[in-house]
Amino acid sequence: MLLELIVCVGLIATVTRLYAKSTWKRFTENVDLTGTTVLVTGANSGIGQALATEFARRNARVILACRSVIRGEGARQNILAETDRDDDGGIVFRQLDLSSLESVRKFAANILKTEPRLDILVNNAAVLEYPVTATDDGMELTYQTNHFGPFLLTTLLQDLLKKSGPGSRIVNVTSFVNKMAKLNLDYISPEKAKHSIAHMQQDSFLKQKAESLLYANSKLMNILFTFELAKRLQGTGVLVNCACPGVVNTSLMDRSKRLVTIIIHYLLLVIAKSPKQGCQCILHCAISSRAGEVSGKYFRNCQMSDDTHPMAKGSEARKKLWKISEELTGIDVSNASLPP
């Protein structure tokens, strides 16, 4: 009886997996990126490293922006080995900690000083595992790493992207969990976010972990940022879109030790993509000719989708988040500049 049950469960899992895989779209265009420069944040593992590898295979100069020196250099060596490229400076590592405004500014200053062009910027790096935590800049850690840091980075590099165009692209990696967000833009600071999330948990039938709510909120922020940035960059030759990779088996999935979460984790593994499979939609937004005239859109499974949080469909939240982002990062986007 036990053996029959195991076989039955295995068969169901196999069929489910095969069906899910049959629905995934792959990026199939043959694009040569010789002469272009691509910057990928969080490129030391998972989707980021898989994406950087795909760019390297297509002969781009790839900048790996990672917080850890050891992991960043390790990823660089892995990409060189996997793509059989010479160590000629075409794959470079630069340290970047998005949870630190000082680190973002130093990183951007270095890029502007050393790189004559930047054709593609992929804001991929994200954190999930932290509860409400304050950074040295006084911001909530998940919000700063997943949105405010990328906001500042993108702002400081936008002139280089404009100069390298037309056709330069910015891709912000978001997630379908944006639809689960309960974002209140009046409760962004660590203390207010903690209070707001505690209130949400009390009103919820199933208590969501604080880190899950923070992550979902930050992924909605990515979409709001994308839509507003695309509007502001109209006519500059820079395209801005956001991409959802789907359910991907990365390190973000295995942080929790709660039994329910562990069970859900293993159930999701049945339909989870590998990092290489997960980076296909991002790759589509970054280099597909079909996405070459599209800006301010949400992509899922290599195609445009309107399946986002209702908050993303209006302009009020986008403008409000933009203003908050300028205030918290200390930058006027209309006159972006690095400090002397």
What does this structure look like?
The chain has 340 residues and is α/β, with parallel strands linked by helices. 48% of the residues lie in helices and 11% in strands. The chain is built from 11 helices and 8 strands. It has helices at residues 2-23, 46-57, 69-83, 101-114, 141-164, 190-203, 210-232, 259-269, 275-278, 280-287, 315-329, and strands at residues 37-41, 61-66, 91-95, 120-123, 168-173, 238-244, 297-300, 303-304. Strands 3-2-1-4-5-6-7-8 form an 8-stranded mixed β-sheet, sandwiched between helices. Strand 4 (120-123), helix 5 (141-164) and strand 5 form a beta-alpha-beta unit. Helix 2 (46-57) packs parallel to helix 3 (69-83), helix 5 runs parallel beside helix 7 (210-232) and helix 5 packs across helix 11 (315-329). The chain is globular. The model has no long low-confidence stretch (mean pLDDT 86).
CA-based gyration radius: 20 Å
Shape: globular
Could you give the count of β-strands?
Answer: 8
| Helix share bin | 40-55%
Q: Please describe the biggest sheet, giving its number of strands, its sense, and whether it closes into a barrel.
A: 8 strands, mixed
